[in-house]
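User: Before I run my own analysis I want an independent prediction to cross-check against. Here's the chain; please return only the structure tokens and, at the end, one sentence I can use as a sanity check.
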Amino acid sequence: MRTEKEKMLAGELYNANSPEVQADQAACHAWLARYNASLAAGAQAQRELLRELFGEVGEGAVIRPPFHCDYGFNIRIGAGVFLNFNCVILDVVEVVIGDGTQIGPGVQILTADHPRDPAERASGLEFGRPIRIGRNVWIGAGAIILPGVTIGDDALIGAGAVVTRDVPPGATAVGNPARVRA
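Assistant: Structure tokens:
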């Protein structure tokens, strides 16, 4: 029988209140307190903190505090990635951000999802769908990337866009819901 954490990582329905999952969240919260207090510490010190928790941190990657995530260990960011202030990554499953991607302030990257059936949802179970963001992507301030979305290399996501579907490489997507401009 698999643990709730194993189910979570596999993208299956899991109980987020299980002791193992809660312990991982508590450890992340303690790390977030340290990271978010590091604003004046400089990029290199912040990168070292990121490497303590994240699955992968590329050379020259920068995340400006304050920053928030669920677990951290499911996040992989490439070389030269930049996330501005107040970004949120709900990483119940993997989030991959490719080299050179620039992410504006207040962007939310959300892998966490919930059952559509009300009775199943009331049981308290949830699941996640991975998000993949390609290389050299620009995501404008306040955009929201929903569970299961893939954004191709060189794409541009407009400020405030709500991305509900995959965005092809090189495309520009704007609006709510985000639509690819012709």
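Sanity check: The chain has a mean pLDDT of 97.
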